[in-house]
């Protein structure tokens, strides 16, 4: 595990590290709900840096991993907020996905990056969408992976996926490891990925040792609910976009990826038939090739 750096950004401190040539075009990876930057596997990051000839930067979002925990903002009742969101009632949250997009822009400011390729997974894809809406001038390209516009008319998660999303993480390592394995067994979907299943114990231990922040995950989930439907705003964006989505995603069904690609003008869609709501090792080549081709088409002019 590489030693993280820390950067002030938008009033918070973000842990980050990087891969590849620091002189290459930057590519920033934005991770999803409750997941720290180590969910972007080091080998994946190194391969992406080499294949796309980019400087890959990954970081912990606020309220996860080693970045600032917003504990002073309290713990929202996410189920109550979800019901209000479904009923289209107004509510307030500790922060929004716009704030988290501003964190990414602030990180880029601190690192001296004027423009970068942005790649976001799940909630990270929604954060990338908010960047396309509010910080398009900072983006060379955008890749949205297994994400959604937030349109409430889209198909919901499967009951099993929704259940693991709302199941509190155990606070002891002994209980956490089987919990972690179950969560990812569900999220990877119906297709077997034995290489990833074999790594679950090691990955789960790394996540646990990095530190769990259930209250932070609740605040991030509240931010998702508060973001609402981004589709109308996305129709007016012009960031070159690639959408990657799995046909077997149980948490964010493939219809959501189709919706993202339809909402953003001229977006390209890459559907992977066996992919669920995860980035399994056997699909890394397809995902990396898709991103590398997309960034090459949208490389900065010298």
UniProtKB/TrEMBL annotation:
It comes from the Bacteria. The keyword Hydrolase applies. InterPro entries: AB_hydrolase, AB_hydrolase_1, AB_hydrolase_fold. The keyword Amino-acid biosynthesis does not apply. Residues 26-278 form the AB hydrolase-1 domain. One of its GO terms (molecular function) is hydrolase activity. Keywords: Hydrolase. Pfam families: Abhydrolase_1 (PF00561). PANTHER family: AB HYDROLASE-1 DOMAIN-CONTAINING PROTEIN (PTHR43433:SF5), HYDROLASE, ALPHA/BETA FOLD FAMILY PROTEIN (PTHR43433). This is Alpha/beta hydrolase. It comes from Variovorax robiniae.
């Amino acid at each position: 595990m590489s030693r993280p750096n820390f950067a002030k950004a938008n009033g918070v401190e973000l842990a980050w590290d990087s891969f590849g040539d620091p002189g290459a075009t930057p590519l920033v990876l934005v991770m999803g709900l409750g997941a720290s930057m180590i969910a972007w596997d080091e080998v994946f990051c190194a391969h992406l840096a080499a294949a796309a000839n980019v400087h890959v930067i990954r970081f912990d979002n606020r309220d996860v991993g080693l970045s600032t925990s917003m504990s002073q903002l309290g713990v929202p009742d996410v189920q109550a907020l979800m019901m209000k969101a479904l009923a289209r009632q107004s509510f307030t949250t500790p922060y929004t996905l716009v704030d988290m997009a501003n964190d990414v822009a602030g990180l880029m400011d601190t690192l001296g990056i004027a423009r970068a390729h942005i790649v976001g997974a799940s909630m990270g894809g929604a954060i990338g969408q908010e960047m396309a809406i509010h910080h398009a001038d900072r983006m060379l390209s955008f890749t949205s992976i297994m994400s959604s516009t937030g349109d409430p008319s889209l198909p919901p998660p499967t009951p099993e996926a929704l259940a693991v999303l709302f199941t509190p993480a155990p606070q002891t390592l002994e209980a956490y490891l089987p919990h972690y394995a179950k969560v990812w067994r569900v999220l990877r979907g119906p297709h077997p990925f034995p290489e990833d299943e074999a790594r679950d114990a090691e990955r789960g231990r790394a996540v646990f040792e990095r530190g769990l922040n259930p209250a932070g995950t609740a605040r991030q989930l509240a931010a998702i609910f508060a973001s609402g439907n981004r589709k109308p705003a996305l129709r007016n964006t012009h960031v070159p976009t690639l959408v990657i989505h799995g046909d077997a995603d149980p948490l964010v069904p493939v219809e959501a990826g189709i919706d993202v690609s339809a909402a953003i003008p001229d977006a390209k869609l890459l559907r992977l038939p066996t992919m669920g709501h995860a980035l399994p090792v056997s699909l890394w080549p397809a995902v990396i090739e898709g991103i590398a081709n997309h960034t090459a088409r949208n490389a900065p002019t010298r």
